[in-house]
Amino acid sequence: MSNADTAIAALRSGYDALADLVKKFDDETLAGPSAASEWDIAQVLSHLGSGAEIMTNTVQLAVAGKPPAEGDFNQTVWARWDSSSRREQADGFLEWNEKLVSLYESLTPEQAETVRIDLGYLPAPVDVTTVARMRLSEFTLHSWDVRSASEPGATLAAEAVPELLAQRTIDLSWVSKPAELDGKYAVLKVVTTDPATELTLNLNDPVSLEDGGTGEADGTLTLPGETWLRLISGRLGPDTPAGLELTGPITLATLRRVFQGY
């Protein structure tokens, strides 16, 4: 399978698993807290549902060779979802995420290779693999926000982890707080397992990430790939996860403060 195929397959399995759970939610559960501190369960589903509706429109226009939607299309979608009831948000999540995943699955191999999608906030249109992986990242993390509320010890979907780690040069500048370093700048060699990768984490202002290891690191962070993804997205609990080892001047508590979530 192509990179697009594997990302889309992971989106399908992730959606199907969360959909099975959401279909069982009663109104009390939908109103309960999620792991996203400012949102209840229904609000997380609304975020994923409205995003799926917008992305479905964006991909359809790109496939048809048309420019992206103009005006206040996104704002209109968000406003409608925000004004919906919790039950409507849950039902809409099911409807629109199924539509989006099915749309990705309907693309021919040629379309998956040649279609370029203008997201409006990137310097240039990007390919289907990039867009599918971006959606997979958002969906996987927020799916964890929903599941972890009732599943202590929940982890990210295993099918998604290799795909998300394939985005080696993630921009950490907008999801990190370098002020929390208190001037203790450092370079960490990051070694992940399951799958095996090597990265370089520059704890500076701004915080940045490079593909490959470094010979001049101040310390080493070794951990499962799934744990790394939760760390940089602010989704690690207070305990030290199994398989995590950290050497050097930066503590795990500091890393948790630097990466507080999104």
Task: Tell me what you see in this structure.
By secondary structure, the chain is α+β, with helices and mostly antiparallel strands. It is built from ten helices and seven strands. The strands form two sheets. Strands 5-4-3-6-7 form a five-stranded mixed beta sheet. A hairpin with a 3-residue loop joins β3 and β4 (197-203). The longest helix is centred in the first third of the chain and has 23 residues, at 41-63. The radius of gyration is 19 Å and the shape is globular. The two termini are 31 Å apart.
What's the N-to-C terminus distance? Answer: 31 Å
Number of strands: 7
- What kind of sheet is the major sheet? 5 strands, mixed
Provide the helix percentage: 40-55%
Q: What is the overall shape?
A: globular
Biggest sheet, spatial arrangement of strands:
5-4-3-6-7
Q: Please trace the helix and strand order, writing H or E for each element.
A: HHHHHHEEHHEEEEHEH
The parts where pLDDT drops under 50 for at least 5 residues are: none
What is the SS-derived class?
alpha+beta
- C-alpha Rg (nearest Å): 19 Å
If helices are DSSP runs of H or I spanning 4 or more residues, what is the number of helices?
Answer: 10
Strand content: 5-15%
Would you tell me the overall average pLDDT?
93
